[in-house]
Design brief:
alpha/beta, Rossmann fold, 6-stranded parallel β-sheet, 8 helices, 6 strands, globular
């Protein structure tokens, strides 16, 4: 946060550019980095190419690390547990899901047999289920060439119309997109309708962790002091 503040003093960049999160997404940033890798390799600059490859690898690691935190905090398994996913677009105020970190987070949780309830104010149910069943990078192909994996999402994934429905009966909540409406939800109402202990994992640092802890939530927010529940878990060192 301090680095983002300092860099943000330069009006050409802005303070939001370095905000920590579950990972960057969108159609441009990763593509541009990989183009830079290609140019470096073509010019024999293998050390420079490897440097930029590491940016993509660290971004992938951040998403994996987030999933590990969720699983380890919830007694080392999310099998059969309902997890609410708040936000699916790669950033707020758009319905764009290209390379959104939500896809990798959902795949990681589904791999441990979680039951996902997903809400995003702009992304449609068809788009979410298409993204979760599509091979990686197939979104960049014409639609008739977008091959779908024969995975059954119907039993593990539901897409709902609001955040309260998504969180009702859930064991945990993952905030993946920084939609403004998520800051203003009635979290006491949400807590009352969740399975206890109730967990919140804020992948965008948009929620007030202290207020949520007072309600009774066990919380995790990227780069912030750890809740006593999770600070001694193995994932805390990774």
């Amino acid at each position: 946060s301090e680095v983002a503040y300092a860099v943000g003093k330069d009006s050409r960049i802005g303070p939001k550019f370095l905000n920590a999160s579950v990972g960057f997404g969108g159609s441009c940033f990763q593509k541009d980095i990989l183009n830079l890798v290609y140019i470096c390799e073509c010019n024999g600059l293998m050390e420079v190419a490897n440097y930029w490859k590491q940016v993509v690898q660290i971004n992938d690691y951040q998403k994996t690390r987030f999933v590990r935190r969720v699983v380890s905090s919830m007694f080392n398994t999310v099998s059969g547990k309902k997890v609410a996913i708040l936000g699916f677009a790669f950033k707020k105020d758009t319905g764009d899901t290209r390379e959104t970190p939500a896809i990798d987070v959902c795949h990681g949780l589904l791999g441990d047999k979680a039951l996902l309830s997903i809400y995003d104010p702009q992304v449609t149910e068809d788009q979410i289920k298409r993204d979760l069943s599509m091979n990686k990078f197939d979104w960049d192909h014409p639609q008739h060439l977008q091959l779908q994996n024969p995975t059954s999402l119907t039993q593990q994934v539901s897409v709902v119309v609001d955040a309260y429905e998504a969180t009702k009966g859930a064991h945990g909540i993952c905030v993946i997109t920084e939609w403004d409406e998520f800051k203003n939800l009635d979290y006491q109402k949400i807590y009352d309708n969740m399975v206890k202990p109730a967990f919140i994992f804020d992948g965008r640092n948009v929620l007030n962790m202290e207020e949520l802890r007072k309600i009774g939530f066990i919380t995790y927010s990227i780069g912030k002091p750890l809740d006593p529940w999770v600070k001694d878990l193995p994932a805390a060192a990774n």
